């Protein structure tokens, strides 16, 4: 009886080990000497065109290297939450030290910095180039010339937070109608204002293709309420370097200056009116092959 019981226990243990082996199957890798997981999800902020451009570029690069890259669009807060839980692998549009400061304070311990790829970013409030004011200090006294409106972007954006908490109280803009909705809605308002010749004030940021499309100027911010130049970083899930050691090295070395970024944005969002960016990015890569090849050299 004792030997029979031991046989049953041993058989059961072997079965459990076999089951565990099935359920813990290793993820498919890229292969050909690359041990990275094949499937990689890049989270992209809705409406953040520099992030869309960088993400589409890296999707094209990594797909060509044998990865299976998926882009998933979401608002800022859900992206940070998803990175912290491992639902997303990578985001290429983290603005520091100011714009996304509150998100890093909340989620920083559960995500990992991979590198900074641009140090020329800046939050702004922009107006039509022929507007009769040049600084934010003049906006309150001339609010009626702008239909008493300041047109913003997504309510959860770091730029929106900076304008609400810093710019509006500093320059006495509380009586203006600060409208937040989406980047797309802001750009629609900007288009309409340019066509009608009306003054408009919008929250914006550089780099952005809007500066190549519309005749704009940034209002000077003498009190520094929107911060100085910012740096755009790539962040991954906590164990990104474990699942993607090769991609970690590539992303860490990735840099893209303002001219290159604005060139890609112009190709995707100014010269092209559509959503299928794959062929547009492929043509841009062809025209910038030496630079693109250097990103994975």
UniProtKB/TrEMBL annotation:
Q: Where does this protein reside within or beyond the cell?
A: Cell membrane
Please list the GO biological process terms of this entry: choline transport; glycine betaine transport
Residue ranges of the ABC-type glycine betaine transport system substrate-binding domain? 38-286
Q: Name one GO cellular component term.
A: ATP-binding cassette (ABC) transporter complex
Q: Which residue ranges run through the membrane?
A: none
Q: What is this protein called?
A: Glycine/betaine ABC transporter substrate-binding protein
User: What's a Gene Ontology MF term here?
Assistant: carnitine transmembrane transporter activity
- Write the record's keywords in alphabetical order, separated by commas: Cell membrane, Membrane, Signal, Transport
Q: Which Pfam families match?
A: OpuAC
């Amino acid at each position: 009886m004792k030997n029979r019981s031991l046989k049953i226990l041993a058989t059961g243990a072997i079965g459990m080990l076999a089951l565990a082996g099935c359920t813990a199957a290793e993820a498919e890798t890229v292969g050909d000497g690359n041990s990275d997981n094949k499937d990689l999800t890049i989270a992209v902020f809705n409406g953040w065109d520099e992030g869309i451009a960088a993400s589409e570029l890296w999707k094209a690069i990594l797909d060509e290297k044998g990865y299976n890259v998926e882009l998933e669009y979401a608002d800022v807060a859900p992206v940070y939450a998803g990175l912290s839980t491992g639902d997303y692998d990578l985001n290429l549009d983290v603005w520091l030290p100011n714009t996304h400061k509150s998100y890093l304070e909340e989620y920083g311990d559960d995500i990992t910095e991979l590198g900074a790829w641009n140090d020329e970013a800046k939050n702004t409030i922009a107006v039509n180039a022929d507007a009769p004011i040049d600084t934010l200090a003049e906006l309150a006294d001339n609010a009626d010339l702008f239909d008493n409106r300041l047109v913003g972007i997504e309510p959860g954006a770091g730029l929106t937070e900076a304008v609400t908490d810093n710019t509006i109280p500093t320059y006495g803009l509380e009586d203006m109608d600060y409208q937040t909705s989406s980047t797309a809605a802001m750009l629609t308002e900007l288009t309409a204002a340019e066509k009608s010749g009306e003054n408009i004030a919008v929250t914006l940021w550089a780099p952005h293709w809007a500066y190549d499309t519309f005749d704009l100027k940034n209002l000077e911010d003498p009190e520094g309420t929107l911060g100085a130049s910012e740096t755009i970083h790539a962040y991954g899930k906590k164990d990104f370097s474990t699942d993607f050691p090769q991609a970690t090295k590539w992303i860490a070395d990735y840099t893209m200056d303002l001219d290159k970024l604005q060139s890609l944005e112009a190709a995707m969002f100014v010269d092209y009116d559509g959503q299928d960016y794959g062929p547009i990015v492929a043509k841009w890569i062809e025209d910038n092959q030496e630079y693109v090849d250097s990103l994975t050299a």
